[in-house]
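Objective 1b: paired records.
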Amino acid sequence: MVVCGDDGLAHRLAAELRGVYGEQVTLVVPASERSVRPPVVVRARAASALLDRVVTAAAGLTGNGNSAAAVPAAGEPPGGIRLMEAAEPNEAALAGAGVERADALALVYDDDETNIRAALTARRLNPRLRLVLRLYNRRLGQHIEELLDQAAALAAGAAADGTGFDASTTVLSDADTAAPALAATALTGTSKVLQTGGLLLRAVERPPAGAGASADPSLATLALLSPTDASGPGGDQGPTLLPDAAAVREGGARATVVLEQVSYAGPPLPDGRGVMPWFASLFSRRLRWSLAGMVGCVVALAVALWLVTGIHPLRAFYLTLLDLFAIDDPAIGESVGRQILQLLSGLAGLLLLPVLLAAVLEALGTFRTASSLRKPPRGLGGHVVLLGLGKIGTRVLTRLRELNIPVVCVESDPEARGLATARRLRVPVVLGDVTQEGVLEAAKIHRAHALLAVTSADTTNLEAVLYARAVRPDLRVVLRLYDDDFATAVYRTLRAAHPRASTRSRSVSHLAAPAFAGAMMGRQILGAFPVERRVLLFAAVDVAGHPQLEGRTVGEAFRAGSWRVLAREESGDSPGLMWDLPDTYVLHASDRVVLAATRRGLAELLGRRGRAAA
């Protein structure tokens, strides 16, 4: 695997490929990046067993900075991350990085033109290469993806053995790939999620059944964790990936890892589908109470008139309304009770005039702002407060609403790019500087479920989180920070200051790296979940051409410790994923399934036995 970039995403991606997927990685960075410390995750994983060793090849580096270093020295240990210098990813740099022999190349420079130029050069050097590009312009990215895929298809048709290799091109945006993780972090506190079929999935650790937890048959058991009692039988046993039913029963004293859908369990956003929704949206709560009080007074006066005079109730109500609007004759010569009630009805009519005027003004104001930004509904609670509607914030907002999660946005720029999206999705927005007093209160932060601070300014995000914690110490907060070391320091400090609250500080590169790594492994790879010192891969595979799947039932296709079919893609009018497949369902050649597999199992299933990792 070759990774070329000039910021923290390149380091993160190299660490993900090596630490999670166990791949050999060459990292190409500009000369100025060599003196910059890699992100904290690289240093942490280098100290753990996830990374064998991080090797920097200082020998053979060219002195002019325009070409890459030579291949690693013969004595360099295999399996590490080889660091190389190159001012730009030109042909000499890519050749020096071994692109002709590589399986995949990731171009994650901050400049779109640099990535496109390098991708065209790499496709010419190696038509079989899997390409992953980081582009901010999504429309241009679609065209580039089609162009490079077409070039790879032509090269495959011209080659004598040009069948059977994956030369796909995948164009990703760090904003798009980080949005699902940010949304999941706000809901569940974890950013390790899997996105497939419009769903967000996460791996959840369940306590042993003997510890009081009841088994949930609707969730697939992905792994049995290592026994907690190392002195007992099997105490030195590692995790068991994809166990069968017998292994699950025998491992009752071991914690399990199951797959769970990320969903929102809080109160729903008021959407106008309640009792008299139009009335509640037109008038404020105080005005509604005033109108209810006036109606109560009219009813009370009508009942009193009926009891005093003994006339029919409907006539008593009619006379009361006439007295209320001062269009009835004076009650001269009638009983004292009738005269007192007429005076009280006239007084109520005077009090009704300002209430009616306020109702008209509020209704006009509501109609005037119907096409503008919505304000947070009265009584809203259990929602997510999203700070910032820039590139990242807009993607996060879209993902949250796809999950039907109530959101209130806060934005200081009235021309922000995400305001049009918020208006289209009818999401409440508070315009104002989040650092000013009263802005977060207007977003109902005291009744919110979580706070997502994703503005482009680290200090603004940090200040907003600190202020929100002052209002609600138990509030779940997620803040986006550019620098990984700074994010780690902020997380540790906030965690120590508020141990009972959920705190997550993440950089976009940290959240985007898993998606880029999965794309480098091939389009069929959906993601990966680490399980202790091992890893589970999730892939979408066509049943056709795989004798281990085609014509077999789901139960027969399951191979303990290797792979397990989890869902089947549905086509037609309502495409999606069908979960909870019965073991008796027969897999047909036209089916496409989502399965969990070990690295070795997936390599065997896809016919890559020579490259299977331990």
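Objective 1b, second protein:
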Amino acid sequence: MRTSPEAFLARLARHAGAQPTRIALDDGERRVTFAGLSGEVEARRRRLNDCGAKRVALALDNGIDWTLWDLALLREGRVAVPVPAFFSDAQRRHLVDAAGLDAWIGPGGGAHGFAATRDPAIATRRVASPPALPAGTTRITFTSGTSGSPKGVCLDAAATLSVATSIAAVVEPLGIERHLAMLPLTTLLENIGGLYVPLWLGATACLPGVAELGWRGASGFDPRRALATLDACRPHSLILVPQLLQALVAARPKAPESLRFVAVGGARVADTLLASARRGGWPVFEGYGLSECASVVCLNRPGEPARGVGRPLPHAEVRLADDGEVQVQGASMLGYLGEPPPASAWHATGDLGRWEGNALVLEGRRREVFITAYGRNVDPQWVEGELCARPAIAQALVHGESLPANRALLVPASAEVDDAMLAAAVAEANAGLPDYARIHEWRRCAPFTPDNHQLTANGRLRRDAILAAHGDWLPATSSCPRLEPSSTLKKECPMTPYQQLQQATRDERDWLLATPLLTRALEGRVSRDEYLAFLGQAYHHVRFTVPLMMACGARLPDRLGWLRDALVEYIEEEHGHERWILDDICAAGGDAEAAAARPADPATRLMVAAVRDPIEHGNPVGFFGMVQVLEGTSTALATQAAERLQVSLALPDEAVRYLTSHGSLDIGHLAFFEGLVNRLEADDLAAVVDTARLVYRLYGAMFRGVEARCAGDSAARELCDALA
């Protein structure tokens, strides 16, 4: 469902009524409450009208002013064009002309033909024939430019706000109250995730200037300055690109205590970096998106096993083409500036991927464009052309995928060209490039030729062959191969106990998630009888949850007394949930009394017995294997299934309360659960793994039994009756 500007602004108004003194915006020098927000935005809307501004460049630093102008443009439906501070003058001129901008807010407008007005904040220029824009365009976000001229992506307000509400749904159970914008607000990801999301949640957006955040240009960063700001703001959430995460973790391995959610994206994140951050308690969650799809498309969720870049967000649909290319639909762009509209609602991303369960795993880029560790797109041929335009350089290969500093292999034009001459040529080329495309490290090398298989017959570089030949220096050094249990690299990339639990139970979890009934539930193709039968079986295992917790707590050894405290919290949360299920059965048109009286299916009974057995006769910590299975499955499936079933079966809200409540509640539980598992010793972890493996299989058998009974499978019914 698309979120309109009217719905977004109405939400802000409700926050103002409910918590008028709550701080909405804080840049360290000034604060704006939710009650005061509307008036500030309205004042700027009138100023835009007075100046006749229709297509407006936002060239301000992070802060309250940037935000208020952005919200004013959103309210009025005018075209906002954020101007990245790292764009060169030539790129800014291209942006102004291509978008037909008639107003400029911030410094630097005079250099591009904008003249001062009576309003000291707004400069304008006359545009006789502005270029045509796709209907509905309210934002043009320019990429960093894979070549010299940045490309404009045209979006409507509903696209960006729909992404914001999707992200908000993921993080809302975490109780986010303060978000610190670590990226420039001109970055679409931060504009949506760091501004619209906290405002939607009624939280505070902390917006210090980029210098206070440690940024120095587009490719320089001071982690000490950033950490000082982080300590002062004490945020609950951040959005980072990989290089920022790496710098922060290196400077402070132990995470700040205030953090609850750190989204990481913009470029590939190395497994070793994620593992290192998680060992220090950094709550990192990798995601994936692109400007053409209004930023975030997929995101790993709290409380779920981390896989690839996570599941698609509620607003997005993702599919793979026959060749593995990732295609996305939902909140897509209206088109590229100055180009025909897209031929299809499905956007071909140029990325290759595969599915792992219901999560997307990326496997590389179709094109040669690379993404730096700071999330900047660079076409290597563009930079190579600039280098080879210098007389001292005959050939060049540029590489920067996931690197903080671009590297180049240089072939000198002759034997007389020494290193000093090459250095001067690189400096000259860099002078004409934006900082994210500049070369920071280089090596001289032998020529690329067809004879050494590094050049095609028509003179094109064979990049794979060159990268292989110079693999000691060119590839990113932070990548880590995927581990198998017997891998000798395990010590180099250690997993947390929670990660070990996820990996050890992967096959059983995949078998459960492949259950046809679950697949159909996510598509809304489950009958009312099947839904009622599921609720009946859920009642028969949920009613034992609290008794099993109490038995586990009674049998825990003294060394695990801290787990007993955790069980008390679980019991308080879980008490009475079986009653919710019976209420849902009634609301869905079933007979709750009959469902409670009917014997449980064999798989359900065996599942409860499989958990009780280690509690009474083995290691009671094994109980937490059931927590891994049931709550992990809820976070992955419950909310989405409830939404689909409610529509397809025309169910009232009262008929899906168990699913919807557990989809959100269990996110908080599993985030808590992850911390518990990470404190377990090897023998206790092994007990959790053993129980989880068995419960995954029995839970899957329960779903398959429900499906067989409702389908009229006589053999299955007879078997179930015999076992009963």
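The chain is about 45% helix and 15% strand. The chain has a mean pLDDT of 87.
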